[in-house]
Amino acid sequence: MVSTLLVTLAVFTFVLCVGNILKDILMLLVNESVDLTSVLALILLAMPYALSFGLPLAMLATTILVLGRLSADSELNAARACGVSLYRFIIPILMLGVLVSFISIYINSDLAPNCRYLIRKFVVNVGLNQPSVLLEEGRLITDIPGYRIFIEKKDAGKNEIEGVYLWILNDRGRPTQSIRARRGIISADQERQKMFIQLFEVRMDSRDPDHPHDPAKIRTGVYAKRYPLDLDLKYLVGDNPEGRDLKQTSSWNLLAEAEELKAEGVHPTPLLVEIQKRFSMGAACFAFTLIGIPLSIRTHRRETTAGVLMAFLLAIIYYLLLVVAEGFKKSPHLLPELIIWMPNLIFEAVGILLLWRESKT
Question: Which residue in 186, 200, 201, 179 sits closest to 231, CA to CA?
């Protein structure tokens, strides 16, 4: 079990890690912003986040592969013939599932969020040296508080952009002003952690915050040949907790924030759901082990491909249930922080039922 777990974990982590960090790495490499050592450091920082998904998948695939092979070779029947019950046979496997669950909970709650923040901080710091890195073309940029930016095309080497669409937001996150510019030039101040954008051939319009997309309520503004714009990046690179979003904050800090909100009379449902989601995804290692044991015994398959496909199918079902459970986070009266455990409970209940039926055969 342990040797197979290490192999499957290495495969899943590599695939998930590459998929998670590939976009940022390619963006930095294309712009020649980092060296190979920094790329390797980014990959290492991305591994904990990949492990948060890779560990449950690896534990499930390992259980199916190992027990499927033992069942196909009649090793389980031989053990029963020697007086070893099914429950006694699977105790070490269940203990391994519990151990891996605790490891996964720690990774989900503390290690992965901090590493995601370090990745983001690294990319932003690189962007202070080459500011065009922070502005991705063809994508709506919402990372800078108070603004939404869309860029049609950019020249990273010259730090120039074309086809700029910018919306200035109010405290409620609604557009109050829209700016369109034919082109712009980007520069940055590393000490002050600010980005400066000189926009050219600019048209500015005012919008109604309550109806920002209603053409009848858009008031035509002014036209300018040049418009300077200062963007504060301290929010993205600062060490203070406010510089992190929900996914980049450890569960212990989220719990402290939740207590502060409760003291102010605000129910912190999104924070509680995020915390419980991390714990439930970590505990999924045990749930996957529990349901994987009877399924692998019943299928009697020794092929690696069939085992991996079965693991992926079960994982898809689990994460679909998790998405459904997470959808209740906007309904605090339904206690979504408890509903988020529903996929684990379903998998564990099915696993216990199948184990009980298998022990009777």
Answer: 186
* CB neighbour list of residue 297: distance below 8 Å, 6 or more residues apart: 67, 68, 71, 76, 358
Extract the tokens encoding 270. Answer: 């999104």
207: Cβ–Cβ under 8 A, 6 or more apart, which residues? 175, 176, 177, 178, 217, 218, 219
Both 81 and 167 in one domain: the answer is no
pLDDT at 243: 55
Q: What is the pLDDT of residue 41?
A: 79
Which three-class secondary structure state does DSSP give residue 114?
A: helix
Mean pLDDT for back-to-back runs of 10 residues, the chain (361 residues): 92 76 59 66 83 90 88 83 85 94 94 86 69 71 81 80 86 81 84 81 79 67 84 59 70 87 81 91 93 82 65 86 83 85 92 86 71
Q: Is residue 70 part of a domain?
A: yes
CB within 8 Å of 333: residues ≥ 6 apart: none
Residue showing tokens 């033992």: 70
Domain match, 107 and 35 both: yes
Question: Residue 22: its pLDDT value, please?
Answer: 61
Rounded distance between C-alpha atoms, residue 294 and residue 356, angstroms: 9
pLDDT at 241: 42
> pTM higher than 0.90 for the full model?
no
User: Do 11 and 92 belong to one domain?
Assistant: yes
Question: What's the domain range around 96?
Answer: 2-128+260-360
Indicate whether 265 and 209 sit together in one domain. no
CA dihedral 120, 123, 127, 130 (to 10 degrees): -170
One domain for residues 214 and 303: no
Residue 135 lies in a domain: no
Domain assignment of residue 140, yes or no: no
Question: Does 80 fall in a domain?
Answer: yes
Q: How many domains does the chain have?
A: 2
Tell me the C-alpha to C-alpha distance, in Å, between residue 184 and each of 44, 189, 277. 35, 17, 42
Q: How far is CA 195 from each of CA 45, 74, 120, 318, rounded to the nearest angstrom?
A: 26, 67, 16, 43
C-alpha to C-alpha distance for 166 and 14, rounded to whole angstroms: 37
